[in-house]
Amino acid sequence: MSLEPVDALRRIAFLLERSRASTYRVKAYREAASTLLGLPEDQVRQRVRSGTLRELPGIGGSTSAVIEQAVAGQVPDKLTELEESAGGPLAEGGEQVRAALRGDLHSHSDWSDGGSPIQEMVAAAMEIGHDYLALTDHSPRLTVANGLSAERLARQLAVVDGINAAVGERLRLLKAIEVDILDDGSLDQSEEMLDRLDVRVASVHSKLKMDSPAMTRRMIAAVRGRHTNILGHCTGRMVTGGRGTRPQSDFDARAVFEACADAGTAVEINSRPERMDPPDELITLAIETECLFAIDTDAHAPGQLDFQAYGCERAERLGVPVQRIVNSWPLEELLEWARPGG
Questions:
Q1: H or E element, residue 296
Q2: Residues 121-167 pLDDT 10s
C-alpha cells in the first residue's frame, strides 16, 4: 500500500511521538510535511526527478528519502521500520475501557508547551477516532510553559471556533484549560474566562512539597470550586523520563477524594508514562470513595494521544467502573456535567 508523501511523513512523526522520541527527531518530519503541504503535487514530483528536494526548507537526507520512496509508490523504509518497532499496542489489557472512551480531556498545543499546532492535534484525534478533544493549554502563572493570559486565551477560543466550523461533525474541539491551583486553592484564570470554557482541568504545578495539611486544604478548596471539573495529575509525581523523577506530594488523599466525590469533580488518571498519576493505591481509594474519573493523556504532541492505552490498562486492571469515567460519556452529557453549577 502506497502513501502520499505528506501522510508518510506525518505517520512517521506520530509513531516517533508515541514511542517518546526526542522532539528534535520528530520536528524534522513534521517540518518536512508542512513544507510539502504548501506545494503542488506535480512540483514535488518534479523535484524528486531533478534531485532538488533538499533545496526546499526543512527537507534533509532522511525526509527526502521518505518523500522519494512515497512518490515512487513504495512504503518508505523508515515507516516500515517504525511500524514494526513502535506501531504495536502500547499496553497489554485495557481494550474494553479504551473502546468505551469517546475522547480525551487533557491535551496541549504549541500555544503553551506543546510541540504541534492545534490543527495537528485535531487531525490526530480524528484519526484515532475520538468524538471530542479538550484543548487544555496552561494558565498564565506557569510562565515556564508559556501559559495563556486571559487575552491569549480569548484569541485561542476564536481559533477553536474556526476549527470546529471547518471540521464539522467529525470531532468537537472543546474550549478548555489546564489551570493552576494557587496556594490558597483558587484558580489561575479570571472567572469570566473560566465561564466561557467547556472543560477545566485544575492541577498543582508549584510548591509541590507544601506540608500535608496545607496541601490538603489547597486541593479541597480547588476541587470544591464551581469551575473545577477534573483534578489533574493529583500527586505531581514523576516516575521516569528525561526530566528525572519526583516524589508524590503529601496530602490527605481520602479527604481530597471525598471532596471530589461530593462536588462531582473527576479524578484524572494521567496516562503519561512519566507520571502514571495517581499511583494504583490511590486509584483504588478513589474508587472506594465513589469518585468520577477522566482517563487523559496530557498529550504534548499528536502521537502522545495514543498514551491513553496506558491509563486504560490501569483502569481496567484496578476495576474502575466505566460508567464513572466521564470521557466515556456522550458529548452533550459531558458538557452538561462540566457546566459550572451543572
A1: strand 292-296
A2: 999 999 999 999 999 999 999 999 999 999 999 999 999 999 999 99
Q: Are 116 and 135 in contact (CB under 8 A)?
A: no
CATH of the domain at 282: 3.20.20.140
Cell numbers linked to 300: 504534548
C-alpha cell at 328: 466515556
- pLDDT tens string 72-93: 999 999 999 999 999 999 999 9
CB distance 283 to 65 below 8 Å: no
Q: What is the pTM of this model?
A: 0.95
Could you give the CA distance from residue 85 to residue 15 in angstroms, rounded to a whole number?
9
Give the DSSP H/E element, type plus range, for residue 174: strand 172-180
Structural contact between residues 86 and 266, judged by C-beta atoms closer than 8 angstroms: no
Interior angle at CA 214, CA 314 and CA 263, nearest 5: 55
CATH of the domain at 72: 1.10.150.110
> What are the residues facing 4 on neighbouring strands?
none
Q: Which residues form the domain of 65?
A: 5-86
- Taking CA atoms, 129 is separated from 66, 121, 186, 305, in Å, by 26, 12, 35, 11
Question: Alpha-carbon distance 297 to 304, whole Å?
Answer: 7
List Cα–Cα distances, 133 to 88, 170, 197, 296, in angstroms.
23, 11, 13, 10
